[in-house]
Amino acid sequence: MKSWRRSRPFWGGLLTLLAGLELLSIPLAVNALPLVIHSAQAGLIYLISIAMIILGVLIWSQPAQRIFLGVMASLLSIMSILYANIGGFLLGMILGLFGGALSAAWTPITPAAGSGADPPARESGEEPRPEVAESSQAPSGETRSL
Question: Where are the domains of the chain?
Answer without folding.
Answer: 2-105
